[in-house]
Amino acid sequence: MKRIVVKVGSAVLTHNGEVALERMKALVTFLAELKKDNEVILVSSGAVSAGYTLLKLDRKVLANKQALAAIGQPILMQKYASKFAAFDIITSQVLVTDANLNTKDDISRINNTINTLLSNGVLPIINENDATATDELEVGDNDQLSAYIAKDINADLLILLSDIDAYYDADPRKNKNAKVLKVVNNISDDEINCSPTPNNIFATGGIVTKLKAAAYLLEFGIDMFLASGFDLDDVKSFALDAKHKGGTLFTKVR
Ligand code: GLU
Predict the structure, then answer these.
(1) 152 C-alpha vs ligand 1 centroid, how far in Å?
(2) For position 87, which CATH number holds?
(3) Average of pLDDT values for 159-188?
(4) Which of 11, 87, 202, 241 has CB 3.0 to 4.6 Å from 163, enough for a Cys bridge?
(5) What was the pLDDT predicted at 219?
(6) What is the whole-number distance in angstroms between the Cα of residue 82 and the centre of ligand 1?
């Protein structure tokens, strides 16, 4: 049994200003399947975008963004809870801050909570506690947050489900000959020193934050798999059937 953290981004969970319920359903179905043979922890973004479906506050203002997260987080949780209930899976919410992830005692409490939830078959759903973060999402984004969590709870694998379906040797939006890098063993400083370029207004990440997450995990020998969250075929093949068709695996040479 492996311990797998799965992170899903806001772009995947939102469609035309609404929570993308069909995509959420597909994700939940995949996670329910994955959970049969693995310990699964979900890191879900989408609180701000879910809040925005109810109240159109200007997201560029930090206090508004935090308020939107406060509105959206329970909406997200309620939708997850009802979808997972169809598989008899109990969900739980674990909100963490940057300060928690930098405090040894807090990390050990997070571990105790998550271990207890997992040993009782409950699915932990983690997000940053955006409403109380003092700076613009202090951890920065959920790509890195999920990497810290994966390391802190001794996960074997982090799966990032994104609007980016893999890591390419060139920007696929600008270069149609760009090729997927299937396996990546190291990431250079140049690759991670570019500024983040999210494709979606609600997303904080872009490829750079994913590379930072991967670089962090490579140091600890934890694998990371980046795949599409729109079409789950690649991640299903990889995680359920052990067949690497598409997506990028970041792994240390063993
Ligand atoms: N925590 C933010 C949210 O749930 C998202 C952060 C990110 O996009 O990585 O809306």
Answers:
(1) 20
(2) 3.40.1160.10
(3) 91
(4) 11
(5) 96
(6) 21
